[in-house]
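quick q for whoever's on today - can somebody do inverse folding on this one?? i tried earlier but teh output was garbage lol. tokens:
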């Protein structure tokens, strides 16, 4: 469990935040449709409680767009089409747009034929991977996603101090009636965005999240970002240390497999090495979509999984006030609470967002 929030926050109604982010991307040069999609996905991450993949990313996305590292208005190119499998190249289009196209294709084919494998490379930052599992859930499909970030070595392998892996997330969605499950996490001890959030004064990091070049565990974001001012954009290339892989040798092994499946198998490239100046990042994602109805096990799957899940969740908690939760439950609870009362943003995150808005001539209220 991460430590609780300590920094002062600015509470913004979700609809207002989404409108501000939409206006920023529209002014920066995205179409109305793309601006609305980016805004919905980023604020959706905040609503799910994953502030690391929410609006904290806006200044950097705009910066990447202005540098030409991420491109508006792109359509994923079909590189290979085997019917049951597809390879797509996003050519650095906005990740929210490109991943949505890739997921729509995988869902459409799995819903028609029972399964589909979609290998995606070259997408801009795709954000919260669980959002794509949720799209598959809505179509009654199981989905499994291995993801990497080409050009973004941030994470030290088990036993090392130097960066070799990206934060390489992994996600699985299971469509159980009334109780859909979404497991979705970075294979780093914390997602990079959580280091960003902490650096802006938000939720502090666990004490062992980062590692210095000398091999000392740390929770100081400067280990990753070097020197920075309160509302400056954070540059992960500037620090000398690394984020640690989660789960010791096992998490480190899963990170390696995400890199190899999403980066090498798709042909999009692994986290590094990065030659010369860093010129943006690209997400790769290997997704597997399965339809229990087509496999003929829908009824058994739902009954056995539900009975088993109920038994798992009935395990006696260590602390009676904290019952065992299913993957996806914390996000659903956060969504309900934040839709009702607003999205809490650290004041420096809000300040950075306003600075970006004002830089583009968008009135931020
Ligand atoms: P995290 O450590 O908060 O773990 C989230 C997962 O654990 C969820 O499935 C959640 O339901 C489950 N969970 C949390 N608390 C639980 C509890 N008490 N009991 C049972 N289950 C619980 O997530 P993270 O590693 O910080 O990742 C955050 C987000 O960052 C994810 O959405 C991930 O996709 C995203 N990410 C994206 C990229 C990218 O390149 N696009 C890279 C890294 C991470």
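ok took a stab at it. sequence:
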């Amino acid at each position: 469990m991460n430590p609780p929030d300590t920094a002062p926050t600015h509470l913004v109604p979700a609809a207002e935040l989404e409108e501000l982010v939409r206006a920023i991307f529209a002014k920066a040069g995205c179409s109305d449709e793309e601006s609305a999609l980016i805004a919905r996905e980023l604020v959706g991450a905040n609503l799910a409680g994953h502030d690391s993949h929410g609006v904290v990313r806006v200044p950097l996305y705009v910066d990447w767009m202005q540098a030409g590292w991420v491109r508006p208005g792109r359509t994923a190119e079909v590189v290979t089409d085997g019917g049951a499998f597809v390879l797509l190249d996003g050519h650095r289009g906005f990740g929210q747009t490109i991943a949505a196209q890739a997921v729509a294709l995988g869902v459409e084919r799995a819903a028609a034929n029972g399964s589909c494998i979609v290998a995606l490379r070259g997408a801009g930052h795709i954000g919260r991977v669980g959002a794509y599992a949720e799209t598959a859930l809505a179509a009654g499909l199981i989905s499994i996603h291995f993801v990497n970030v080409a050009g973004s070595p941030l994470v030290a392998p088990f036993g090392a101090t130097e960066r070799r892996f990206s934060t390489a997330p992994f996600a699985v969605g299971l469509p159980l009636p009334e109780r859909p499950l979404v497991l979705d996490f970075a294979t780093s001890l914390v997602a990079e965005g959580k280091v960003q959030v902490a650096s802006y004064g938000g939720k502090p990091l666990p004490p062992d999240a980062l590692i210095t070049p000398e091999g000392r565990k740390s929770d100081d974001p400067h280990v990753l970002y070097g020197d920075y001012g309160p509302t400056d954009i954070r540059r992960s290339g500037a620090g000398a240390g690394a984020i640690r892989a989660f789960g010791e040798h096992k998490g480190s092994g899963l990170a390696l497999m995400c890199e190899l499946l999403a980066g090498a198998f798709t042909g999009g490239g692994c986290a590094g090495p990065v030659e010369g100046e860093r010129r943006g990042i690209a997400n790769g994602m290997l997704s597997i979509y399965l339809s229990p109805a087509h496999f003929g096990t829908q009824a058994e799957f739902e009954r056995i999984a539900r009975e088993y899940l109920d038994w798992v969740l009935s395990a006696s908690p260590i602390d009676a006030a904290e019952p065992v939760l299913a993957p996806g439950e914390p996000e659903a609870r956060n969504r309900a609470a934040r839709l009702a009362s607003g999205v809490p943003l650290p004041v420096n995150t809000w300040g950075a967002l306003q600075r970006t808005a004002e830089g583009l001539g968008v009135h931020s209220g």
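fwiw Residues 1-5 have pLDDT under 50 and may be disordered. also The pocket of nicotinamide-adenine-dinucleotide is lined by residues 50, 52-53, 125-130, 147, 149, 167, 169, 171, 182-186, 190-191, 194, 283, 325, 327-328, 330-331 (CB under 6 Å). so keep that in mind when u check it
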